[in-house]
Amino acid sequence: MIGLNDGGGTPADAPPPPSRVRELAAAIFADGGFLCSALDLEHRPQQEAMARAVAAAMHGDKALLCEAGTGVGKSLAYLLPGIVLATDHQRQLVVSTHTISLQEQVESKDLALCRRLFATVPELGPYARFKSTLLVGKSNYLCTTRLALALRGQESLFSSPEQTELVRLAEWARTSRDGLRHELSPPPVPEVWDLVNADSAACSRKHCDGTCFYQRARSRLRDAQVIIVNHSLLFALLAIGGAPTADGSKGILFPNDFVVLDEAHTVAEVATDHFGLGVSSFGFERLLRSLFHPDKNRGLLAKLGKPEEKLLVSDALEASAQFFGFLNDQVLVQQPRMRVRAEGICEPWLEKPLTQLLGGLDRIATRMEDGPARDELVDHHGRVKTYQSGIRQFLNLANEDHVYWLERSGRRGQIVTLRSAPLDVAPYLRERLFRRDTAVVLTSATLAIGGSMEPFQQRTGSEEAVTCIEESPFDYERHMRVYVATDVSPPNAQDARLDLQGLVDYLDFCLRRVPGGSLVLFTSHRDLRAAGEALQPALARDKRPLFLQGTDGSRSELAQRLRDAGNGVLFGTDSFWTGVDIPGPALSQVIITRLPFEMPTEPVAEARSDRVRNQGGNPFNEITLPDALVKFRQGVGRLIRSKTDRGVVTVLDSRIVVKPYGREFLGILPNRGFQRLTRENRDETFRPFP
Fold first, then answer.
1. Could you read off the pLDDT of 514-556 as tens digits, one per residue?
2. H/E element holding 470?
3. In which band, very low, low, confident or very high, does the pLDDT at 13 lie, cut at 50, 70 and 90?
4. Which of 47, 49, 207, 566 is the most exposed place for a label (fewest CB within 10 A)?
5. Cα(441)–Cα(467) distance, integer angstroms
6. What is the torsional sign of CA 173, 176, 177, 180?
7. Cα separation of 523 and 593, whole Å?
8. Quick one: pLDDT at residue 550?
9. Cα–Cα distance measured from residue 381 to residue 647, given in angstroms and rounded to the nearest whole number
10. What is the DSSP letter of 42?
11. What local confidence, expressed as pLDDT, does residue 6 receive?
């Protein structure tokens, strides 16, 4: 992980200099203010209200939850006050997003607009020279010190093809600007990259000079007022401790920083993924083989270890094959995922071999001189110990407030992963995020349910936060039409084939009637594939490209292809319900095939439902329905992304009009005036925009 002790900023116990953040936020966002006069942007009352609330929270180091509808302009509403305060107080603003597209927008578009405003208005001139940088995990950077070590020991570390890959990396390093893995095409071989990336104690200021890509990135972090990160890395860092607090300093990642989490509706889900265990048989065995590969006689111990010490790695590999093989062949034989409810699911076959291996690594380290090679070995020792601790915790079900489960994955289903997650993530977020004596702003277009933030606050531990809701300024009544098909058989109908036929029939009708691009949202990969197979011939005849999630590229690639096509059709599941931003005619229709209820069969969802039920509650009302309402709002929100956008939302799930809970879904539609469709009336009723 990236070092967290290098953040700059004013010490927490030093009195901060005065800041004009509240005064300048009012001057920037007011009607006729600097945004209007200097950049000729229209005044948005909702944006002004949000910016004032953000400035107050940042100035007072308080927590704020702000729901800001599409079109409010929330990025500027938190960036401009944040940059002012960061500059005035010599602190760092950390901005975290969930999607790559928003991260790119903040980095390349929004921050450029901030610089332009500051440079244009003399009163704001002192803020024009702010610096920003992107924070990515250490394992994404090439370390030149580790690269040099690997080149010197390549014959003992790598086979011939891997040595060729190492040479390719060395040649790339000579011309690379940032040394980031994603810059290299084709991507590096994982086994080689593991031994040259910066995620090691060997990569440090003690051993690395100014040529190390990661150390240069760390210098940029120390100098930056704005640091951009994604939620996954943010919570991975928080899970291992975040900013140091032993000296009484405050901060989330860096001493005395303050944080904005955009797309905050995903916070609880992402945090749940990171505040638990994840022990993979693939990763563990790769770590052991990087120490010593018995079949190839390669690895760190090929030169450093005595025969009996190399044998310790072989013994650990055999025990790993026995341990994970038993779980795969005996426990997961019937299903790819299984919740573990009691201790003793497997014998601790790895405990003794790993203890012996750790002792052997200690002995080797004592024979070595201080330097990067010894630090490399010590780092591997720490990783082995972390795996041992994780496996021990899993077998003992160490945390009573966690749910434990096993997963089988990989092309041949041979990768076994031990997983755990907290049943309630709120205490973790309360401790690591909201009680660090610094400003924390969470914002999204969908935080509230029925106008109340309380469910979100309870789930995220943010009960003490100030809240505000700013409605979208868009004219949904004129620019959005909503239709509900009332004669499609609902899910779980007895004749599943007839249901699919009805779904495909309506999809064919809606897609033919709307000339622009369409996003079709599914809750099932099976339904997506079946509908895609049924509709492909008709769409091909109409010369409309069809893009299927899971088949035709990554999420960002598919979104870009839909933008470029103009009349394309994209079938997506879970990740496409949120974060997709395609303004204009390229997205003229959103079709929701099913209300997005999650089935409580996943281990975390099942365990949380069990807990609510045992406490006398109703899991559907307390978990399933609220989650579905937020996801539904996000899905509908994909349609209107700019002031001039127009389009159609069609819901192909009759439960929205026949079930009592359907009123809650209808109540959160931006345009409440929906129309009912049947096969008899749809030709006359369904009217897309010209």
1. 989 999 999 989 899 999 999 999 999 999 999 999 888 888 8
2. strand 466-470
3. low
4. 566
5. 10
6. negative
7. 8
8. 85
9. 58
10. P
11. 46
CA distance 63 to 54: 9
Gap between the terminal Cα atoms of the chain: 52
CA distance 210 to 488: 64
User: Which two structure tokens, joined as six digits, stand for 688?
Assistant: 């897309």
Phi, psi of 212 (to 5 degrees): -70, 125
Strand partners for 419: 278, 405
CA atoms within 13 A on the CB side of 323: 29
Closest CA to 43 of 83, 78, 76: 76
Conformational region of residue 32, where left means phi above 0, alpha means psi within -120 to 50, and beta covers everything else: left
Contact 566, 547 (CB under 8 A): no
User: Maximum distance among all alpha carbons in the chain?
Assistant: 85
Q: From start to end of 262-386, where are the E strands?
A: 278-280, 337-340
- List strands edge to edge, sheet with 63-68: 132-134, 226-230, 93-97, 258-261, 440-444, 63-68, 466-470
Query: Mean pLDDT, the chain, as a whole number?
Result: 91
Residue owning tokens 């630090």: 375
Residue 594 phi/psi, 5° resolution? -145, 145
Which residues are CB-contacts of 72 (< 8 A; sequence separation ≥ 6)? 44, 46, 47, 50, 470, 472, 473
Mean pLDDT, residues 455-470 taken together: 96
**DSSP per-residue letters across 149-166:** HHHHTHHHH--HHHHHHH
Q: How far apart are CA 670 and CA 652, in angstroms?
A: 18
Beta sheet of 337-340, edge-to-edge order: 278-280, 415-422, 402-409, 337-340
Distance CA 549, CA 246 (A): 46
Contacts of 80 (CB under 8 A, 6+ apart): 25, 28, 29, 51, 114, 117
Cα–Cα distances in angstroms (integers) from residue 653 to residues 476, 486, 525, 589, 671, in the given order: 22, 7, 17, 16, 18
Please indicate, yes or no, whether the overall pTM of this predicted structure exceeds 0.85.
Answer: yes
Give pLDDT tens digits for 166-220: 999 999 999 999 999 988 889 999 889 988 999 988 898 888 888 899 999 999 9
Q: Is the pLDDT of residue 19 over 50?
A: yes
Cα separation of 13 and 5, whole Å?
Answer: 17
335 CB-contact burial (10 Å; exposed 0-12 / middle 13-18 / buried 19+): exposed
